[in-house]
Amino acid sequence: MSGDRTGSQEEAGTPLEIRRAVVTGGAGFVGSHLCDRLRDGGAAVVCVDNFLTGSPDNVAHLAGDPGFELLAVDVNEPFDVAGPVDAVFHLASPASPHDYARHPLATLKAGAHGTLHALELAGRKGARFLLTSTSEVYGDPKVHPQVESYWGNVNPIGPRSQYDEAKRFAEALTATHRAHLGFDTVIVRLFNTYGPRMRPLDGRAVPTFITQALAGLPITVAGDGSQTRSLCYVDDTVAGILAAARAGHPGPINIGNPAEMSILELAERVRDLCRSAAPTRFVPRPGDDPDLRRPDIGRAAAVLGWAPVVDLDKGLAATIDWFAAQQAAPAAEAAP
Ligand code: NAD
Ligand code: UDP
Prior knowledge:
Elements (H helix, E strand, L loop, with lengths): L19 E5 L4 H12 L3 E6 L18 E5 L14 E4 L6 H6 L1 H22 L2 E7 L26 H21 L3 E6 L2 E2 L10 H11 L3 E4 L5 E3 L1 E2 H14 L5 E3 L4 E3 H11 L6 E4 L14 H7 L7 H15 L10
Parallel strand pairs: 1-2, 1-4, 2-3, 4-5, 5-6, 6-11, 7-10, 8-13
Antiparallel strand pairs: 9-12
The site of uridine-5'-diphosphate (UDP) has 17 residues, from helix 5 and strand 8.
């Protein structure tokens, strides 16, 4: 069912200059690129991470930068940050299906306790709070493409529920703090994002296929590969996150690339770009794996003037170059 109301979707935001930001999950894939872009724009950054699925290596190039601080903190416990803060970006959460299956309770806690603690930090600082929610709140969608007014189709006790429901709860917590406690909040729903600094063995399709293709190992396509995803290069995703944070529209706002393709097509594209002869191996599909996913980005265009600009071949080529340079580890573990 599609809902008629999504709260304050038509509200305009108040533009914000971000001079100092906290990024939870800042040592992860998306978070580390966000730290980079914030520093590029002159904002000081406090990166908060417990390295559950991220690594200090992702921000090692910022060590010694006086505008960058890295704190080893578990946001599932109460935490504080010294000094003024204009914006809190809450990214801390396992994000790949492989990771949230390995860390189910930590994932639920990151959506619940972690989000509450990050909101409380924003409240104490008078800062804007941005939640990176996910297309997974739409579950296995019955509305295609997915528009923000769609309420989703999520199995609350299924194999992906620890992530999907944690993010749905995190959205509810954020919306409640806005509606009832006057917090300044933004919700963005990120769709599948790829790029350098993904972990080769995080189990997601892009790093798995690249690692396998580069090693000449069978490319593990789940099911018959007809399920679709819409892949957004990380630079575009981070530009969307920053635009949303600066604009202050409460959202939710879909951030993703509407170019949709089947997973089998993705495997073939990666194999071609890697100039690999790796065969395809069809493997069982994970439970509750969504059939279709494509964002409607009309709202992002209207309220942020944002749209992705990196086409798939360019983004994949940059990602493949990065993986090749990392001399990725064997891919066998990454099969679903
Ligand atoms: P990631 O696993 O690379 O990064 C998550 C980071 O959060 C890691 O550095 C991890 O160590 C940290 N973290 C986890 N639990 C923590 C805790 N309790 N305390 C402190 N740090 C903690 O994942 P990512 O792909 O960079 O995703 C970042 C965010 O974006 C997540 O919230 C995810 O749900 C959201 N998102 C990502 C995508 C995508 O395609 N990458 C799509 C939709 C939403
Ligand atoms: N997938 C696949 N082979 C893999 C890893 C993933 O075919 O080795 C499929 C997976 O079943 C899903 C799609 O690729 O249909 C995208 O999976 P990913 O984990 O990248 O993202 P998500 O499921 O969270 O959208």
